[in-house]
Input
Amino acid sequence: MRQFAVVGSGPAGFYTAEALAKAYGDAAKIDILDRYPVPYGLIRFGVAPDHQSLKAVSKRYDKVAETEGVGFIGNVCVGTDVSVEDLLGFYDAVILAIGAPHDRKLGISGEDLPGVIGSAEFVGWYNGHPDFADLDPPLDGTHAAVIGNGNVALDVARILSKTRNEFEGSDIVGHALEALDASKIRTITILGRRGPHQIAMTPKELGELGHLEATLPLVDLNDFPPREDDEALEPGQRKSVTILREFNDIRANRPKSMVFDFFAKPLSIEGANHAERLIVEKTELDDKGAARGTGETYEVPASLVVSCIGYTTPPIAGVPYDERGGKFLNESGRIADRLYAVGWARRGPTGTIGTNRPDGYEVAQAIAAAMPAGSSGDRAGGEGLKRLLSDRGVKPTDFADWRRIEAAEEAAARSGSPREKMVRVEEWQRTLGH
Ligand SMILES: Cc1cc2nc3c(=O)[nH]c(=O)nc-3n(C[C@H](O)[C@H](O)[C@H](O)COP(=O)(O)OP(=O)(O)OC[C@H]3O[C@@H](n4cnc5c(N)ncnc54)[C@H](O)[C@@H]3O)c2cc1C
Output
């Protein structure tokens, strides 16, 4: 019997477990570990609460968790409760699928002022991540700025723009819904260092903005290249740029605005005791398509600044790390003998949920090639790990615990609106009797 540990229960972890279960059948035990007693990583804590259809992918992961030979060991933080070296003692292979939970820094002055928040924190706050339940973002000013030109920036700007009515059917947590409902923000500026042709925003997400109840998306057509230049773009990007252009044709009176500020490079954030404004330099594209400052500066008022400029994987002791890439050093997912990485911990924070599937399958195939299904190992697997955790006073949780938490959340949802997720570790512990 082979024993495998997949560390992280987000998409990459589940696709890898699925692929290993297919490759080995009943000749392997696969434990999916997570630092939390509930699974799915960014499907629970990242994907926007008003995009429920995307979260349905978790049904597929549920099936994996129910597969014979697949186990869930929650409440275990690898690198803190157990080391990777410990895990390699118990398992034939260890696959790190811990994602990239830390915000990249802006690297400009004023970034530590109150009111300047990374998207991992802000997104975690409205999605019920226990680390950010008390974030209390400042929503009492009239201006917010969102830095970045990808879909996460769009998520953040859209969530700041929506009315209470528009969250109907979402699973936004109650504390965020109340705070957003009382928000005084009227102008949300989205800043990107380059132009409309360089955005990393997809058509579906952009298209939603035209239909917001209380917010008008605004673009300046002077930022756009001549329309015929759009022909050279790949079809998806062309569609995104067309949607952006068409924002200019919307004739509607809405009390809030979402301003797309292109060719805008934040230089610093200023304010007496908290963020009040961004100092921004106008840019232009150089001949390699990179943003180059023009020396012309202007101010963008903002008492809330959310930076959406990417994420990094935290290093774990003993695991080779790529400082520049902010991920584990690996070659096609292989870090070292019997140690692998998948998903964002392998590639960095790019791609969609589905991009993690080929990652997981490729690594599972590499493992199966190194340890053919007929061969056997003699490692202690999850039983050995649980003995060690018990010696260290760590209480791991299992699949039944995860289901108990979900059942308690569903019961809370039935008794009120919106669907209520548990947002504090203590609530999980109380539910589990810890
Ligand atoms: C704000 C946001 C919105 C997004 N929206 C979409 C979208 O609409 N559509 C789409 O296709 N993609 C979306 N994505 C991208 C998608 O979420 C990612 O591609 C995917 O979640 C990456 O999977 P992963 O398994 O590598 O990481 P994650 O999903 O982050 O999973 C990592 C798991 O590892 C666990 N973990 C972390 N550290 C440890 C540790 N030390 N020990 C044990 N466990 C640990 C975490 O708790 C987590 O469960 C979004 C991403 C973000 C940030």
Remarks:
- The CA atoms of residues 281 and 375 lie 61 Å apart.
- The two ends are 32 Å apart (CA to CA).
